[in-house]
Amino acid sequence: MPDKFMFLTFDHAEVPMGALVRGGHSWRYVEYPTTYPWFHVALIEFDGAEHRSTTFYVYDLTDLIELADSTEHQLQIERVLLVSPGHLNGTGNWQMDELIEIAKVGLEGRSSLVYRLRDGRVLFEDERSRTADASQIQVVFVSPVSPSMLGPTDQAAKR
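The chain above was modelled as a monomer; its predicted structure follows.
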């Protein structure tokens, strides 16, 4: 299987979209055949004076960063949720949590990701990242924060 795909789809699960969504496909269900974390990205799509909310499901960190940095498309990220498997979040079950930032930690010639969540938890892809020196840590993504998402303590800190 390719290393950069997200969902596995099946012809028998496809729902015809008709001419309104040219080139688009829709499925009754999809399979997520891996236990890697992914990102649920809430966006606002601007089209002139109009705008609409939409959601992207993003598997790869590079794609998330590219989406956040994109100026070609009229998209604004509202919030990013980390969808994490139980082995990463420690519960044994999948969870969705609001993401604050992602950092890469250099560990013995490779990098590992660290996810900081809105509720204060930090999830480590590799437990050795917990003891990493500050010089080994590079923040690679910071989620946008709207004022409505800040609590009283956060709002005071931003002033």
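Helices lie at 61-69, 86-89, 152-158.
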